[in-house]
Amino acid sequence: MRVLIATATAGGGHLAAAAALEEAWKTCCPKDTVQQVDILDFFPTLQRKIHSEGYVTLADHAPEVWGMVFKETDKPEVARRLTRIRRFFPSTSRSRFKRHIEAFKPDVVFCTHYLPLEALGLLRQEPGRHRRRKPEAGGVSEIPGHSGRPFVVSVVTDFEAHALWMDDCVDLYCVAAESTGARLLARGADPDSVVATGIPISSRFSQVVDTRAVRRALGIREDFSVVLALSGGFGMGPVVEVLAEIDKASTEFQVIAVAGRNDELRCKLAVQPYRHPVRVLGFANNVHELMAVADLVVSKPGGLTTSEALAMGKPLLIINPIPGQEAANSDFLLEQGAGSKVNRVEDLPFRIEQLLASKKLAEMSASAKRLGRPHAARKICEEVSKRLAKRKTRSE
């Protein structure tokens, strides 16, 4: 089998989901050839910069504008019209990506961002390509693999399925939850093509963690609760203000703050005076360990962060969700009882004091554990393997 995982650098979640799928497929099928590509690598430099930095900049500095764009494009007819318009005009980047697919000849293409679907849809519209003659019959085969069109999987990385994730070229939609799938079905997706697998996350989030060893390694106290403040891989949001407000809480606890790849933010956080014990970290590849020792996670509700916290059974205190997909993720957590939300950073001290001193925190943890899908990546791979096997049997 030849497996292509196509993603895009537009927030860290899409990349993390792609890495989780690559890890899971290589574990399940170690003899297969797996390749991960960032579709933005096929774009001209300026266009790549706009796509990779545009969302982060817009979401961080003008979230209401991003919310408006999200809402206006989240209509199947609008999304289809936009796709038709883009496909009508020649595109060097799309052509380069198509040539890459033709050269690699994948059996299956996972998309952890919707951008690759545009080129894959055009590829499927071209009859006669990626076919071969069956020696025993002299006819033309449409089987998956080097000779047939690839099996396309749209892996939705939020609890809300935006219309742009839908395309006629998609064979299977893997979604975060049953409610996410219901949205696709309401918009006309084939029921057999939608499976609630969960959002793919690293297998590290299914491992048992020695919390005492982690506490010792981090130099944090055994007798204090831990509040984990996350800023995402890119260090977005008013993190300095958030930590300053958290520090005003009178309850005794300690804080682990993760600044992501934002070195300027990390340095700024590290020199602030705090009354609570605070450990400031940069980009962390052991978030599963940090979550394991945390009693409460304070974060924006990105799809991957949300899925990781649920897999670890950790409640989220949601701060400043971006209008659009993060607002939908927030709604899901609140409806399911796995999260709480503050609308203003100055509300943080009271809410943290309230949660750490109440039974609600344990109830939220139990709800999170119930919702968690730590093996989502493996389930997606197993589902795709099963469907490819059935398709191959039918074609023989």
Secondary-structure map with pairings?
Elements: E1 2-7, H1 12-28, E2 33-38, H2 45-61, H3 63-73, H4 76-88, H5 92-104, E3 108-111, H6 115-124, E4 132-133, E5 140-141, E6 151-155, E7 172-175, H7 178-186, E8 194-196, H8 211-218, E9 225-230, H9 239-246, E10 253-258, H10 263-270, E11 278-281, H11 287-293, E12 296-299, H12 303-311, E13 316-319, H13 325-336, E14 339-342, H14 348-356, H15 360-371, H16 376-395
Parallel strand pairs: 1-2, 1-3, 3-6, 6-7, 7-8, 9-10, 9-12, 10-11, 12-13, 13-14
Antiparallel strand pairs: 4-5
Helix pairs in contact: 1-16, 2-3, 5-6, 8-11
Describe this structure in words.
This protein has 396 residues and is α/β, with parallel strands linked by helices. It has helices at residues 12-28, 45-61, 63-73, 76-88, 92-104, 115-124, 178-186, 211-218, 239-246, 263-270, 287-293, 303-311, 325-336, 348-356, 360-371, 376-395, and strands at residues 2-7, 33-38, 108-111, 132-133, 140-141, 151-155, 172-175, 194-196, 225-230, 253-258, 278-281, 296-299, 316-319, 339-342.
